């Protein structure tokens, strides 16, 4: 990290600050807060666990489509993508707030998730063109870590509005719109971009795809396992009677604290190889899921598990970036996009499958299955590590 987080006061600082807030909004407040408000939504709309899984899967697919489009257009049209991110995120949450039935709510929820997919690639370009090149990597890390504070913000909002989830989504929409406007105001179009076209010329070979095979499988498996917490995490605690229903919101604060802690542990993680960092992250995720399987009714155990999961999930996404960079630095942007899409596609599969398991066999079996998927992601990376030993990424 060194002095990566020390930015000169000016436009670059504003882009980083508002960009971090926009990630906090589109990810923490919009996309990942679905599971936080799910118990109240299910009660009011009579939404089953399986139905909740279908909506979560649709949201993940919408994210994948938006991310694929965003990484293709992000370098040339970042401002347009910010507008698209705000339109889909705000339109989605306001549609959820106004929904009178499951169908309307589901469509709006799926739409809202596209905002996060559009946001990430746009902000990558904005940071690159507004922040000094020597500080760009640190700036990107700060912006990407916005998910953690966003989760904490969502939990605080849930505590303030109690069971009034419609009010929460309404407020979230206004916050997201305001931050989007701030990002656009802070960004400055470069006067000249002589080398820009060359950066968008990406044509990975068939061997590139083969080299990423284990990474793709690992990302998909981890995504499937992580969907247990993102979709059913709070519902599990409500079912287990861990604390009062309002008290379970503290689990989301624990998630945000764990996710934010990734910034502090990044220097240590950078000393590990890419696959080593991935295996450690997924081991922590697996341990967290096991704790939630065997002891969700114990409040200290549950909160510890959520802190662990929050750290493990965000650390694992950073490890994916390092993994594809080790495989082929020249195509690291394309690799990052592809692996993130694989991860979220895994979440789509996992949300549907686990929703069916919850309905048929209960939360315990579902979270055990999620832990097994995460454990398989560790094994997949171990196989890749044995086949092609890698040096430290930092």
Q: What does it look like?
A:
This protein is mostly helical. The protein has 2 domains: 9-188, MFS general substrate transporter like domains (Growth Hormone, Chain: A), CATH 1.20.1250; 206-394, MFS general substrate transporter like domains (Growth Hormone, Chain: A). The protein is 80% helix and 0% strand. It is built from 17 helices and no strands. The longest helix has 30 residues, at 332-361. It starts with 10 loop residues before the first helix and ends in a 7-residue tail after the last helix.
Fold topology:
Layout: H1 11-31, H2 34-45, H3 49-73, H4 78-98, H5 102-130, H6 136-144, H7 147-161, H8 165-186, H9 196-199, H10 206-211, H11 213-240, H12 250-260, H13 262-269, H14 274-294, H15 299-327, H16 332-361, H17 363-387
Helix pairs in contact: 1-5, 1-6, 1-7, 1-8, 2-11, 3-5, 3-16, 4-5, 4-8, 5-6, 7-12, 11-14, 11-15, 11-16, 11-17, 12-15, 14-15, 14-17, 15-16, 16-17
